[in-house]
Amino acid sequence: MKQIPMLPAVQEILRRRADACRSPTDHLFANPIQSKYATPGSRQDGDVGGEPARRLLKRYLRKAGITPSRDMLWHAFRRYFVRKCVQKGVPLNILMTWTGHDTVTMALHSAKETRREESSREIDRLLA
Questions:
Q1: Rounded average pLDDT over 6-23
Q2: Cβ atoms 15, 6 nearer than 8 A
Q3: DSSP string of 30-48, one letter each residue
């Protein structure tokens, strides 16, 4: 089970969403664009996933003034979070608990995408 620390404001938003659920099996994050091809239990059946979720992300990127590209996916936020945690020195066992990764290798795989300037800065720091 993933244990993710959250700001109190986020906890309150999620608590309100959970309270609004009609049954214990309702999805906390329902897909606002239901697919006519969805089958019960599929990613398109009320879950945030698939093409409707990509369209939703693109819409919010445009609202933020960002031009969407094919590689901009929801999972990029997860990789960004892991990378930031590694950069800030969050212990790997804590990071693995937050992300649900079973191995250090899996946790570090998400963090391996360092930017060129980050690598250059670290080399400069090492040689100083």
A1: 83
A2: no
A3: --SS--TT--TTSTTTTSS
